[in-house]
Specification:
The chain has 86 residues and is mainly alpha-helical. The protein is built from 3 helices and 2 strands; from the N terminus they run ααββα. The chain has one domain. The longest helix is centred in the first third of the chain and has 41 residues. The protein is rod-shaped and about 70 Å long. The two termini are 29 Å apart. GO terms for molecular function: odorant binding; olfactory receptor activity.
Amino acid sequence: MLCNAYSSGLMFSCTVLQCFLISFFGEIVKSASLNCTRAIYASKWYQLKSICDRKIVLFILMRLQMNIGFKAGGWIQVSMDMFKQV
């Protein structure tokens, strides 16, 4: 009986740890994406000499407006906020 309770507790702990690690790294990717967006906005990209370079930067900014991160099942953003809710 004690062995079964120990196994159940260990299994639960491993499952929670696995969910935490995925959420933690999802949060890192999400915050890195936000930092990248802020850095590009803060730069003087509009003063670039080449129009082609300005268009590339604008394309990157448009792409960064979408949520970047891990998704569970393709529809739920995995982050520490989601881990707290579970």
